[in-house]
Write a structure and sequence with these properties.
This protein is an alpha+beta fold. Helix content is about 20%, strand content about 40%. It has 2 helices and 8 strands. Strand 4 and strand 5 form a beta hairpin. The longest helix has 16 residues.
């Protein structure tokens, strides 16, 4: 998930004089299938997200395939150093990612009462 320490640092009001440095350029892919319990169907699924900035990118999507929720996410750090004058761009990016990570699927029971 989003590094809460980094997000807190990016949202502070003080002006940062030094760049943010990631440990390395990296890419992480998550792929998860969740079988729904019998009688349950999704009422609402999270909207797909594609967020991109010069330093990182993020994509996520949740789809339904039969009775299985399919969750796919890709997070990539493209550059290890972000200069202080570009931190606003990085802040917006991580706020989008944090909001996406808080989203959830809503299920409803459709079986017999």
């Amino acid at each position: 998930g989003v590094d809460s320490t980094l997000l807190n640092m990016l949202t502070r009001k003080n002006v940062r004089k030094y760049p943010v440095q990631f440990s390395d350029a990296t890419r992480m892919d998550d792929l998860v299938d969740i079988k729904l319990p019998s009688g349950y169907k999704p009422e609402e699924l999270p909207q797909p997200l594609s967020a991109d900035c010069a330093y990182a990118s993020y994509k996520s999507a949740v789809t339904l395939n039969g009775d299985t929720l399919h969750y796919q996410r890709t997070y990539e750090v493209k550059d290890v150093e972000v200069p202080p004058d570009r931190l606003g761009e990085l802040r917006v990016f991580y706020q989008q990612v944090a909001e996406d990570e808080r989203s959830s699927a809503i299920l409803r029971h459709v079986g017999t009462p």
